[in-house]
Structure to design on (561 residues):
């Protein structure tokens, strides 16, 4: 191996260490120095552990010294992800500027409305000037278009100053197709397993030790060098690992050790399709020790009930009975037959497991962005439907998550966008349009559907938040503030023991969620009268009279016991 510098080529020497075979030593370089590698005469390639890729995914690496940043968050004591009001955002579309610094300016406003943790979609380097981030490479680096690694440090520091914790979405199950040079440096991938993206990351085949260290060292670095509070681990079911100790269990243990050293909580939140509480069960009890996991079943149950959609993986969802089952049991498919998958799926969640270990939402980047037009539920639901959706997420027993703009009823779409080079970009665009060809979107949208071209800059620009105000948007903002205030009644564990969660229909399209705060959503065309408690908040018209509460059409009432 040879290190390529600005004015010289320096041969590397193989390290003599039987415990770390395959490592090479080279010159010490100062912060800001450019370098790359020749491997077996091929290259030059960027450093697989590059912390800074200012010239793009194919360019030279640059030395980044994380210790040069002057942090101001010495008094920050951290925030556990469990129970935190979480706000998922895409840096490039969250603000007009699309940068870390612009997002940092919004942190006090998010804190003021009750957001406790922001979740950043992936920020690893990716091709071009825009993308979702799930096709990132150079996993130790930070996308330059957002502001690079120093910009991420500034954002986290600003968030902590505002009292907001930060989750970073990381992708360890695959790398993007452009700029992925890991295979040039060692057995980072294996054909012993497959994933939706091709070969799996090598976690259990020969040479896996250093691959596992690559993942673990990457995760720990975000906590130490960037003061990140939690990691959201993308699609962990695609981490194929037959080792005695699963990669997630290893990561859980090392994260716990680092949390003890740093003196603040560090969380690992898994996106898992397995519907298995083993994901959030401690390693000492046979689990893999994740702090929390996403619960897609709750989204599906809520979305289908409110919208009536039943296509694709929504086939088994849609009724109030299903919504009740998921609210009480966490998953619909917990050892039951999944029509979409064509097999029995999942396992029961212990009744005594803390429901804050499950993150629920009514919208997220996947559920919005993977629709044919990237349209949000707010573009289809009535004002009362939006209000009900927010209440059922924020006042339930789970950890609530919002998708950026949901707090005021954003109606601009969030579409899938990329900026690949010509040939790959053309294949992505054609593949996207073909993918949606037979999904029945014409029926859903009421006519021909022209899928937005992912490669078009207009698709990206059209996905930026409008930050609309006035009318329904201000009404939703006010309602969100009410929900955050009332949510304090739901936080004590004993509150749910006295008032266990359940859903029922009091009349057609009149949904009630029972809990420490009972939510009555009247989505029917006529008023409904209930006698369920004291009115503590409402969206639309709800009036108390002689012990009864009259809830007008398209209105939501909050009732305390």
């Amino acid at each position: 191996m040879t290190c390529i510098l600005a004015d010289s080529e320096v041969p590397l020497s193989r390290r003599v260490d039987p415990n770390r075979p395959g490592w090479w030593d080279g010159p010490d370089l100062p912060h800001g120095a450019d370098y790359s590698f020749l491997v077996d005469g091929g290259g030059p390639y960027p450093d697989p552990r590059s912390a800074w890729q200012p010239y793009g995914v194919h360019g030279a690496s640059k030395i980044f010294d994380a210790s040069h940043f002057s942090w101001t968050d010495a008094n920050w004591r951290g925030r556990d992800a469990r129970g935190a009001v979480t706000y998922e955002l895409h840096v490039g579309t969250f603000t007009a500027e699309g940068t870390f610094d612009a997002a940092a300016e919004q942190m006090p406003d998010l804190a003021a409305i009750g957001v406790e943790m922001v979740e950043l979609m992936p920020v690893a380097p990716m091709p071009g000037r825009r993308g979702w981030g799930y096709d990132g490479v150079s996993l130790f680096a930070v996308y330059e278009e957002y502001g690079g690694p120093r910009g991420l440090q500034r954002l986290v520091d600003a968030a902590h100053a505002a009292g907001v914790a930060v989750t970073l979405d990381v992708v360890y199950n695959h790398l993007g197709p452009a700029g992925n040079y890991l295979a040039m440096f060692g057995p980072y991938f294996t054909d012993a397993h497959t994933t939706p993206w091709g070969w799996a990351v090598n976690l259990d085949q020969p040479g896996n030790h250093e691959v596992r260290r690559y993942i673990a060292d990457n995760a720990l670095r975000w906590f130490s060098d960037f003061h990140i509070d939690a990691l959201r681990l993308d699609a962990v079911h695609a981490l194929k690992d037959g080792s005695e100790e699963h990669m997630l269990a290893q990561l859980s243990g090392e994260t716990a050790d680092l949390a003890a050293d740093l003196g603040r909580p560090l969380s690992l939140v898994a996106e898992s399709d397995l519907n298995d509480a083993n994901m959030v069960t401690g390693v000492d009890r046979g689990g893999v020790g994740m702090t929390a996991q996403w619960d897609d079943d709750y989204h599906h149950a809520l979305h289908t009930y409110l919208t009536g959609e039943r296509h694709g993986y929504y086939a088994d969802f849609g009724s109030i009975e299903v919504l009740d089952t998921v609210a009480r049991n966490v998953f619909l498919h917990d050892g039951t037959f999944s029509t979409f998958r064509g097999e029995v799926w999942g396992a029961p969640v212990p009744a005594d497991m803390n429901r804050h270990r499950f993150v629920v939402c009514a919208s997220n980047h996947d559920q919005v962005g993977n629709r044919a037009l990237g349209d949000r539920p707010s573009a289809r639901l009535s004002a009362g439907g939006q209000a009900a959706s927010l209440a059922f997420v924020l006042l339930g027993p789970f950890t609530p998550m919002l998708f950026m703009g949901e707090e005021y009823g954003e109606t601009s779409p969030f579409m899938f966008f990329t900026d690949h080079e010509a040939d790959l970009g053309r294949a992505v665009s054609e593949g996207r349009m073909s993918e949606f060809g037979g999904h029945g979107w014409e029926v859903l949208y009421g006519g021909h559907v022209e899928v937005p071209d992912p490669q078009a800059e207009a698709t990206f620009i059209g996905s930026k938040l409008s930050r609309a105000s006035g009318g329904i948007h201000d009404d939703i903002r006010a309602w969100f503030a009410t929900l955050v205030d009332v949510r304090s009644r739901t936080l004590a564990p004993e509150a749910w023991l006295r008032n266990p969660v359940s859903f029922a229909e009091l009349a057609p399209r009149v949904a009630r969620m029972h809990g420490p705060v009972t939510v009555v959503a009247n989505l029917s065309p006529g008023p409904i009268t209930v006698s369920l408690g004291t009115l503590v908040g409402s969206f639309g018209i709800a009036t108390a009279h002689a012990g009864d509460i009259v809830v007008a059409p398209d209105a939501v009432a909050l009732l305390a016991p």
